[in-house]
Specification:
Elements (H helix, E strand, L loop, with lengths): L3 E5 L5 E9 L3 E13 L2 E5 L7 E4 L2 H23 L1
Antiparallel strand pairs: 1-2, 2-3, 3-4, 4-5
C-alpha cells in the first residue's frame, strides 16, 4: 500500500490530501485538510474523516501528523474489513 500527499493550495488555508491504494486495483481518494492557526500553533481536521484532528507548532509538523493520522485511519479500516 502506498501513500501520497499533495501540497496545500496557494493562498488557501486548507490542503488537499490524496491517498493511493495498491491491490487488485489502484484507487486514489482525495480529502480536504482544514488548517486553523493561532499564535501558539495550528490545528487541523479532515471533514471527510471526522475522527481525525491534529495539532502542531508549524504547518510542516501539522501536515506530517495529518498524513500519519490518515494513514493509520485507512489501515484501521482495512483491518476492520477483514
Amino acid at each position: 500500500m502506498g501513500f501520497h500527499t499533495a501540497d496545500a493550495e496557494p493562498g488557501g488555508d486548507s490542503a488537499i490530501w490524496g491517498y493511493l491504494y495498491q491491490g487488485a486495483e489502484t484507487m486514489t481518494r482525495r480529502c480536504s485538510l482544514v488548517i486553523e492557526g493561532v499564535s501558539m500553533g495550528y490545528s487541523a481536521y479532515v471533514p471527510e474523516l471526522p475522527t481525525i484532528l491534529v495539532t502542531g507548532r508549524s504547518v510542516e509538523e501539522l501536515t506530517a501528523r495529518a498524513a500519519e493520522a490518515i494513514r493509520l485511519y485507512r489501515e484501521a479500516c482495512l483491518v476492520l474489513k477483514r
